[in-house]
């Protein structure tokens, strides 16, 4: 089984409350990411139903490291926009405290899904349209892949926005350098 990852920045719905609750979209439907993949609405439905049936949950990890769970996703659901998540960072764990501080400061502004593709098709533009995914985890990450979504934290200072813009410019430059 190959685990794939897709990254997305938190959108303006993200909030970090004093009790370390976070919420936002981990994936958006119909938007191509930097790899050209598009997640189709309904792609997570079977996976979420299977997890519920089996009494399992989507894991909250730090930077896709399975050795570093940092919290619990209390709600993971599809809506008309994408995959919405709400959870709690565990501040009794060092990385949980660190994640809460980094999000609040604007230093971490991304979510990434870890999944296995079960079904995909190519569209007329040659993009892979992901129609069914087996969702394993949603991680807090430094570099998101879907740049159209932006972070919105409890406090959104000018400096934090500038840092995110700089990070986006660095990601774009890195990708340009990697192209043949």
From TrEMBL:
Residue stretches making up the Prohead serine protease domain: 20-159
GO BP term (any one): proteolysis
The keyword Phosphoprotein is annotated on this UniProt entry: no
Domain of life: Bacteria
InterPro entries registered for this protein in UniProt: Peptidase_S78_dom, Prohead_protease
Record-linked Pfam families: Peptidase_S78 (PF04586)
Keyword Secreted part of the UniProt annotation: no
MF GO annotations: peptidase activity
Keywords assigned by UniProt, alphabetized: Hydrolase, Protease, Viral release from host cell
NCBIfam families: proheadase_HK97
Entry protein name: Phage prohead protease, HK97 family
């Amino acid at each position: 089984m190959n685990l794939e990852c897709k990254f997305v920045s938190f959108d303006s719905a993200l909030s970090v409350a004093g009790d370390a609750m976070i919420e936002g979209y981990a994936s958006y439907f119909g938007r191509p990411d930097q790899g050209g993949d598009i997640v189709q609405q309904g792609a997570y439905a079977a996976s979420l139903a299977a997890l519920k049936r089996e009494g399992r949950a989507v894991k909250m990890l730090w930077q896709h490291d399975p050795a570093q769970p940092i919290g619990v996703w209390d709600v993971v659901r599809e809506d008309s926009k994408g995959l919405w998540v709400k959870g709690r960072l565990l501040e009794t764990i060092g990385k949980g405290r660190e994640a809460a501080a980094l999000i609040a400061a604007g230093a971490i502004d991304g979510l990434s899904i870890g999944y296995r593709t079960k079904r995909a098709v190519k569209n007329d533009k040659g993009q892979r349209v992901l129609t069914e995914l087996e969702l394993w985890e949603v991680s807090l990450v430094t570099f998101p892949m879907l740049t159209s979504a932006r972070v919105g934290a409890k406090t959104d200072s000018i400096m934090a926005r500038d840092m995110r813009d700089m990070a986006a410019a660095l990601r774009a430059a890195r990708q340009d350098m990697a192209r043949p």
